[in-house]
Amino acid sequence: MHNKVVYNTMKVFQEFGLPVLRFNFRGTGLSEGTHDEGHGEQDDVRAALEWLQQEFGLPTLFAGFSFGSNVGMRACCGDPRVPGIIALGLPVEAEGRRYSYKYLPICAQPKLFISGTKDIYGPKQIVEQVVATAPEPKTLVFIEGVDHFFTGKLPLMQAAMRQWLTEHFDLKPV
């Protein structure tokens, strides 16, 4: 929740006047509970969506980074409260975990995938194969020479998000 990718994503959403909720999944940081291999974490995303709906009553655009992109997409694909999804640093394999995207072919919402060409957790060729299984509308952006954390290139990540938000949701910075 406090890393630079999540923080810079929040800043883009705020530029467009969108409400933002950052949270740690169960067992991360000072949060309660224990890590549940992505199963209970989907419930965390759904609880966050429910809170945002009650608090603001607006459609929610989801953005997740790394593990959060995988879990969030699983929870948000097909949810009518979520008209769009952003997946940053999509992981394929990390720290002994393999990530599955079997649900992606039924994910009809507009999707933006942003990864670095040097992401050790999501090699370019494999990310391309995963994204190919997703239906349109989808956008895949690779930032050349960038690692999993978009080190030194966060402004390029933000620019891709701004462009996508403007094109797909007719949003304008406030």
Radius of gyration: 15 Å
How would you characterize the largest beta sheet? 4 strands, parallel
Succession of helices and strands: HHEHEEEEHEH
State the CATH architecture: 3-Layer(aba) Sandwich
Total strands: the figure is 6
Averaged pLDDT, please? 90
- Sheet with most strands: strand arrangement: 1-2-5-6
Helix content: 25-40%
Structural class: alpha/beta
Going by CATH, the homologous superfamily would be Alpha/Beta hydrolase fold, catalytic domain
Q: Which CATH class?
A: Alpha Beta
Plain-language structure description:
The protein has 174 residues and is an alpha/beta fold. It has one domain: 3-Layer(aba) Sandwich (Rossmann fold). 37% of the residues lie in helices and 15% in strands. It contains five helices and six strands; from the N terminus they run ααβαββββαβα. The protein has helices at 4-15, 39-56, 67-76, 124-132, 154-169; strands at 61-65, 84-88, 93-94, 97-98, 111-116, 138-143.
